[in-house]
Structure formats: structure tokens, C-alpha cells
Amino acid sequence: MENAIRNPRPGPPGGVADRIAERTLARRGQDYSSEVRRLLDAGLEVMRACGTTSRPRVADIVAAAGLSNDAFYRHFASKDALVAALLEEGTERLTGYLTHRMEAEPTPEGRVRRWVEGILAQAADEDVAAATLAVLWNAGSVGVGEAAGPPSASAPLAGVVEGVFVELGSTDPALDASLAAHAVVGVLSDHLWRRTRPTAEDTRRIVAACLAIAIAT
Length: 217
What we know:
Order of helices and strands: HHHHHHHHHH
CATH architecture of the largest domain: Orthogonal Bundle
CATH class of the largest domain: Mainly Alpha
Mean pLDDT: 85
Strand content: under 5%
């Protein structure tokens, strides 16, 4: 034992050194995950508070999160990167919600109706509508390259309903689902900006339009 301590050699894979390093990395990963969560939550809250009158600074977000600029830039290259992450997270939650709603419907027409209702519901709750509008407005200033363009919620939402368009007989379900998603998101955006809520007639008409897009082809 004494000789081994005086003349250390690399330990075997999975030995004490590796296990200690893994524990350190695990703790650091948990700390970093907590930092990111605090930054995302603070970013959303600050953007909602600013509304569409001003765009928050990184300094505002880190102050609300109780973190430092170093912590912010450890995870995000810029404020635009955080905005894109907020849009991505919100879209993931919405697509999961839509998928769950649609699973209960036995017909493709019913699934399209559930899909449209779920998207337009983002304008029904005042707090949700305010937060959604703030993120979309901030995302409008985000550029991720000329070829790709700014981040968009339409593509993931189209992916949720593309299979349903196949069932409805669309000859180009990817394109038709994309057209429908842009239409519904556009209607949602109009309601968010006007601070209005979609009516039952609004929903009926947009569902009919989405079904017409699929069936017409």
C-alpha cells in the first residue's frame, strides 16, 4: 500500500478516480440544469412583464434569476439563444398536449378539430396569452442564419397533424400540414395581438379550412 501511494500509477477503468470524477460531473450537471431552469423561468417572466413595449436585456434576466452574467453565458451564446430555447420549450409542451388530446379522438376529422382547438386555446387564458405573445414577439427579432430564418412553432405543430392528413387522403401531407399549421398559428397570433379570444365559430371555420386543405388534394 505504501509503495503504491509513493509510486502512483493510473488506476483501472471504473476505479476510484473515475467514480469520483463521475460524481463531480453529476453534481455539476445538476447545478447547471438548475441554472438553466432559473434562467428560462426568469426570461419568460421578464418578457411577460415587458410585453410588447420593450425587449429585456441579459442584465434584467440574470437579475431576476439571481445569477451572474457568467452563468448566463455558460449556457446561452446570447439573449436570442435563450428566446429560441423558450420558444422550443413552449412548442414541445404544446405538441405534447395536442398529441394527448388527439389520441382520444376516433376519427381523423375529430383529431384535426382537437388540434385546432388546442392551438387556439393559447389565446383563451389571459396569463398564457400574455406569455405566449411576449415570447413570439421577442422571437421575431431572433435570426439563426439567412437560410434557416427565425425559429418558428409552425413546423413542430405541422408534424403533430401530418399523419392525420395522410388518413384524410392528402397527396402531399407534409405540405398540407404545414399550410394548415401556418394558418392556425396566424389566427392565434391575430387573437394574441388583439387580446381577443377565439369564438366557437372561429374554431369551426378554421377546422373546416384545415380539412379542406387536406381533402382538396
